[in-house]
């Protein structure tokens, strides 16, 4: 064990994420003994862009662009906040369509995450397999909404496109395919020796730490806290569905709160989402065709209803990464929103990196970082500085290589 | 975990805070689903001195109330902070949101921290400090979280007062010129 403590900064540039961050690790030998987080290198000031300048319909499209992967979750929470402020009721059919799009997004997001996680430990064949699988759900989303990302289907008081019977049939066909392939994905992730070696008892967060830090989404469920807004506080179409929060104990005997548990939760949630979509389709087929918007005339919605609205509202949604929270205040006589607060799930989850990282090795940094499902492109460079001021730059490729070497070492 | 009722939360806080409790109500959301289920959320307004007392009381009702975020609203002479907490999480169909409103005058921008009761509130408190110039007393880590360290003191991006905004825009321009001066294309432009 070395007696010198080195500091390893990781980051900070992070192109696709609301809160880009920089880590500074205190290292003793290979062991992480100190973690410091710095965020905001790429803060875009989106709340400022919207406040007093844009009307709620314009903000929907801005909210979609907060995150390229959560592009259904932010508008979902935002429209719910505006509807709460206006006391607007969403037509039943639109409520179910919202659930379907949100769950399709969860499938593609979790598959994407699974691929990234595999890549971080040097299992690139699995990355290619999962991302190939993800293409199909992107195609469905394109068929239903017109876009692969930034769906543009949300509207205040409903959705912009209906899902017809013919579309349901073709989506069901793809879902059947997914169900067949799910067993393979399950085997590859949860019965594989390499993945178990690199993830079991790595990046542990206990039940108590998860409660203290108010962690959200799969990150908190992997520590055994059954927090899931779809179950605890159901909204829109989720009210009529049978959902149970996914916990690691469904596969393992006990909860460890490690990276492996986060893999379990996300993999099982893919199957859960498929089930939710099928349940929703059954209800949707029974629901008579009709309105998908509370107010079809957008000019009336904007100039009469939103202008009259006076009040504040909150909207929550369980995004693939956890709870999305939006707060909106509208003022009478104005169409522009007065105040907007958008909070992405990672805002609550970043602090959970501190207990997860401590005591682990440098080579585990990539997989622990990826495990809470942020965008991990931030790790563009690492500088190792020692006390004699000699410095050496490690690129992301070097880190990745170290990670792969650790996998190889463990296999021998 | 035992579920808490909305009315109980409101009454308990009213009894505990006494004069510092200004207003409270339960708001129904728009109906959802076939059976037209409504969510019932609690909204209340209290004086800023008793925010710690209020959160402590909630923590007695349920261990570690979940804090979603603290949202902010500049209304001229005062800044409103909304503490968005939730109770009864992890209990099927029973969770609800509690929004605690406090008003902070711009002349005295101090508020007590709640991080010793809910450690998860630290990041959002740090954000309030740098974005609005609120001083959170007793925060364990008061450094900037999102704003760059080169950003000058005394300017707050989420304030809506006109004076601040005008200063801000020209200041951003100056910053841009200063900070990018070392870039080669900028040097050429200067020549």
Order of SSEs of chain A: EEEHHHHHEEHHHHHHHEEEHHHEEH
What is the chain-wise order of helices and strands of chain B?
HEEHEEEEHEHH
- How would the global form of chain B be characterised? globular
User: Strand order of the main beta sheet of chain A, please?
Assistant: 3-2-1-9-10
Poorly predicted regions of chain B are 175-187
* Quaternary state of the chains: heterodimer
| CA gyration radius of chain B, whole angstroms | 21 Å
CATH A-level architecture of chain B: 2-Layer Sandwich
How many beta-strand segments of chain B?
7
Q: Unreliable runs of chain A, pLDDT <50, ≥5 residues?
A: 14-19, 375-391
Tell me about the biggest sheet of chain B? Answer: 5 strands, mixed
Strand content of chain A: 5-15%
Helix- and strand-based class of chain A?
alpha+beta
CATH superfamily of the largest domain in chain A: Cytochrome-c3 Hydrogenase, chain B
The DSSP helix count of chain A reads: 16
CATH topology of the largest domain in chain A: Cytochrome-c3 Hydrogenase, chain B
The overall pLDDT of chain A, averaged over residues, is 85
CATH uppermost class of chain B = Alpha Beta
Distance between the termini of chain B: 70 Å
